[in-house]
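I hope you will forgive my troubling you with a question about protein structure. You will find the record immediately after this paragraph.
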Amino acid sequence: MKVVSVVGNRPQFVKAAPLCRALRARGEEILVHSGQHYDPELADLFFDELSIPPPDHALGVGPGSPLEQTAAIMLRLEGLLSVEKPDMVLAYGDTTTTIATALAASKLGMPLAHVEAGLRSFDRAMPEEQNRVVTDHLSALLLCPTGTAVANLAGEGITEGVHQVGDVMYDACLMFAPLARRREAHRAWEVEPGEYLLVTVHRAAATDTRAALEDLVAVMEALERPAVFPVHPRTRAKLESAGLWDRLGRVPGLRLAPPVGYLDFTSLLVSARAVVTDSGGVQKEAYFQGVPCLTLRDTTEWVETVEGGFNRLVGMDPGAVRAALADLSMPDERPAYYGDGHAAERIAALLAAAAPAPARA
């Protein structure tokens, strides 16, 4: 079995940590880093601390619009895949890297496997929704984290090659959370466990217009309690360009932090009273750690967390945020929505079974 895996941003690096190990125990994996996240604090740090093998190929696409990055990744993958000739191309999630990988593999006639297949927010205006829908319809193996994802695909007429395997991010959580807890990252920001919020905001809908950025600052002003906000470089650049960075810096109790690695982020998360985020992956990580989540969106692909009472959709609405913060109660028991921590092993087994048998001498 020879697999080319393509990653490009933080959540994909986290998913790759357990999956690289499982794949390499069964065959050959060629790891490709697209360069979608090119800041060392968002890329190199994750490879180091999660013990992910160094990429075999770095495409180095760097900054650019989603269309520019998609085109650059596709062009660079074309030559690489033509040389490597893998049995399967592996794409993760719903990013620019995901859609570029799917299109490149499809145009070259190479079978594609999609980790986190079947997720739907049913909001086609979201770039992530566009990416995941197209990728699923191009994939030969659809590796679903939940039964809901399997049902979503069936609703679109996709039933062949569909497998419910669990969630590789849960695998990573079980691998790294004990180490993360020992780091006590909250101490660096002079906040007390259980007394602060953890904030992340990075999506285009929250950062690409001045109106959206003003809403973001208004939401931060509505938190009215200590909060740690590791700021994505793109988010900071947008705030500075709009002249809102200084206003954000004056919000009482808000600690603006540089990006942090997975272990420090998880350490901050497990000690937080709640997380306030627009990230899909962080919604799940909050669920894994039993931390209440307020999602700054009107829809989510992780519907189980909302239906179960662990996650609340508050949009970019200061009033809704205040109301949710007034009651952060949630159920004591967390169902096993995302599997048993062995998703990576199941995925590796499925890819090995799909690979052609080696030719006999």
About this structure: The first helix runs from residue 10 to 24.
